[in-house]
Predict the structure.
Amino acid sequence: MRIDQITLFIVRLPLVRPFATSSSAKDHLNHILVRACAGDLVGWGECACPSDPYYCEETTETCWHIVRDFIAPAVLHRDWDDIETLIGYYRRVKRNNFAKAGLEIAAWDLLAQERGQPLHRLLGGTRSEILSGVSLGIEPDLSRLFALVDEYVAEGYRRFKLKIGPGRDVETIRQVRQRYPDLPLMADANSAYTLADLPTLQALDAFDLLMIEQPLAHDDIVDHAHLQRQLRTPLCLDESILSAADARKALDLGSCQIINIKVSRLGGLLEARRVHDLCAERGVPVWCGGMHEYGIGRAANVALASLPGFAIPGDVSGSDKYYLQDLVDPPIVASRGAIPVPNTAGLGYAPVEERIRRHTTRSLDITARGAYHGY
Ligand code: OSB
Ligand code: MG
């Protein structure tokens, strides 16, 4: 296979309701869609990167720069028949995982189409439906939060993740736990605390949380190991795990007991599967995280979450939780807390180019292999 043209689209979609974490607040998103053409085949990927560097250091603009100037020129017009070979062409690019994931997902889509197989089969998925939970932002008041929990309980979602941050933690969780004694509940701090907040984090032990996600710094695994020894609640790492090597080190250190596997944060499906395999070997629970993906990135998440190790409901919900109209057909919907894994070749959900173009604020065709900048 040879990719002969790559087109990038910055696609702006409004969220159906604003979403706030301890690090950022949004009412619309700007994800980059990557369309890779190889002969008659067209593969799609998504850089599901926030536009600000508050979750990780990447932004929409850094993804644009890295894909345009380094990743696309490195892969155009070069032969590959497996993902290892393809990503080998841009191996020199350090980190920039959201940028890499955009191209890599498009390559998996091409490969799956060429073989006439659904993506989940290429990956080794075994589930016919994935277990679906929701991630709820920090709301202006508790009644808003309760209304959302009620709505998603009624829809049948199987696990509830609440964003927390300093001043919006113990009391919020206490009230939610009091109102919903049996809810499968967890908290995500998006790296808002330090070890000095130990008393606050220990207070969360009282609420029977499934786990606490990324309480400490985005780049830490040492302090998390100290913290885990002083908490009963399992810690789950998100921001700190950028590769399977990171996962191995964190598990060796005892920095967490559970890992949130995100395609974007890990630079693509191949590395995400490596983390899955490592955790399966060690009996470590994992679940599939998300970055508010549009239908293309969400389709990749659905395929990944069909792997056998994804036994805990993750953050991959129906796209109607975020978007009025998704960019793919059929739309990705959950019913009774499960999303069926599609069996058509490729991503299994077809990108609707007319809709994509309607929401595009910038696009670029790249056809030249070219030299890397700076050489
Ligand atoms: O920490 O998991 C996170 C969204 C943006 C940035 C960080 C995170 C999230 C989510 C959303 O929790 C999960 C989803 O895609 O629904
Ligand atoms: Mg998180």
The first helix runs from residue 60 to 75. Residues 15 and 322 are 5 Å apart (CA to CA). The two ends are 27 Å apart (CA to CA).
